[in-house]
Amino acid sequence: MTQLTRRSPNRTLRNLQREVDSLFDRFFDRSEDDQGTTAVWSPRTDLVEKDEAFHLRLDVPGMSKDDININLQNGTLTVSGERSSERTEEGEEYVRVERAFGNFHRTFRLPDAVDQDNIEATYDDGVLTINVPKTEESTRRQIEIQ
Fold it and tell me: What pLDDT does 94 receive?
């Protein structure tokens, strides 16, 4: 008897996204307990490491910078906020809803070699950018051979 298997290309993408999220979690020492149970959605995040700093970019479209909180405590950087639903029209019947609304937060354990006093954040066109500079002792430098 032939067995039919349903293939879903989205399943492969979801698995890849879970693997990437897991890499972020391991890099920043983030455990499942850190994520809490109140978050409804989680903004997608890119992490870039350069010699002088880490750069985090979080997609939070449709929000103002006043809707976003960034906290640093005991080497843990937490980004949280709430995106309100735009569903205000009486009698509207949604056929499909893919955008997430409600509370979110992302928590990142920072490496010891960062300058916590000089972390900066900017918000532009729906992207929150957080620059986490490294300490001078931890930056890479070229050693000249004598």
Answer: 77
Q: Where are the domains of the chain?
A: 35-87+94-138
Weakly modelled stretches of the chain, pLDDT under 50: 31-37
135, 25, 67, 92: CA torsion to nearest 10: 160
Q: How many angstroms separate the CA atoms of 60 and 129, rounded?
A: 10
Please name which of 70, 62, 71 lies closest in space to residue 100, comparing C-alpha atoms. 62
pLDDT at 36: 46
Supply 48's token pair: 């870039």
Q: Domain 35-87+94-138: give its CATH code.
A: 2.60.40.790
Tokens found for residue 10:
């989205």
Instruction: Return the pLDDT at 95.
Output: 80
Q: Is there a contact between 134 and 117 (Cβ–Cβ < 8 Å)?
A: no
CA atoms within 13 A on the CB side of 131: 11
